[in-house]
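Sequence in, structure out. Go.
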Amino acid sequence: MKARTAAIQVITTLLMTLWIYTAISKGMDMQVFRGQLLRQPIARGTVGVLVWLLPSIELAAAIFLMFARTRLRGMVLSFCLMLAFTAYVGLAVAGYWKDIPCSCGGVLNRLGWKEHLWFNLFFTTLAGTGIYLLKRQRKSGLQQAAFPGEPAKG
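Output:
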């Protein structure tokens, strides 16, 4: 039981760090992010919405992950986001589009497409594992706190 709780804590912390970091990176340089989105193979009319929506959803995922009551939702949202991002990067690696820039935040911009694919696969797997562990924890009856000071549910 303690190993599961520790694993959930590590997974949650890693995902929260990812989402907070990428959202803040995008938010700190919105003009660059907007420019990168404009160079993506997406409808130009969606860029104005996406420039705000993507960082907002990333922050929402981080906030959901912070609390035991919403943690499973945060894991599911994280898994869905990572699955979508991984599919997009997978298409880039496969050469589906010609020379498109990464519109990720911060140091993730510096990764090549193959490295980015592995990075995304790792975090997709983490989120999927987090969902599995949280569901097992719920099934066992007692939801232990994943973070010190957080009340356990039972």
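Check: The helical segments are 2-28, 30-38, 47-66, 71-93, 113-139. The CA atoms of residues 23 and 54 lie 8 Å apart.
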